[in-house]
Description:
This protein is an alpha/beta fold.
Amino acid sequence: MKALVVTFFHVPWAAGDQTGIQRRFGAFLRALHRVCDDITMLHVVPAGMMESAGPLDALSRSQSSFWGVPLRIALAPRRTRAATAWNHYGAGVLDVAAQPAWFPYSGPDLAEAVGAAPRRGAGPRVRAPAAGDAADLAQRAAAGARAARH
């Protein structure tokens, strides 16, 4: 089973960077890994961070080590625009995606990045879900729950 996790967290670089939110997020990723054998994490980051991140294969290895689960990492840039009175106060009245809090994390470019993320980086292309995937997921989740109780 495959999973795509979209996060607006900055990419953590070292184990010492871990905060409480990251510890909870790590617990979520470990639980997700119990039912998904292929996890792609898409970080929505400032454009400058994309340039300094280096090769995605190396970033995937370092992030897999940081989080303790195998991950494929993809990056997408946050949107930016000029700070004008119209952009700050007016544009959001006509389009919720233009509101200052939502603008960096919305739009057709980010939608394209989310759609393409499972195909980027190291690892196989995404396949269409098969009919048995839901039953397989239920069996794996039940087995994981039984193992956690014992």
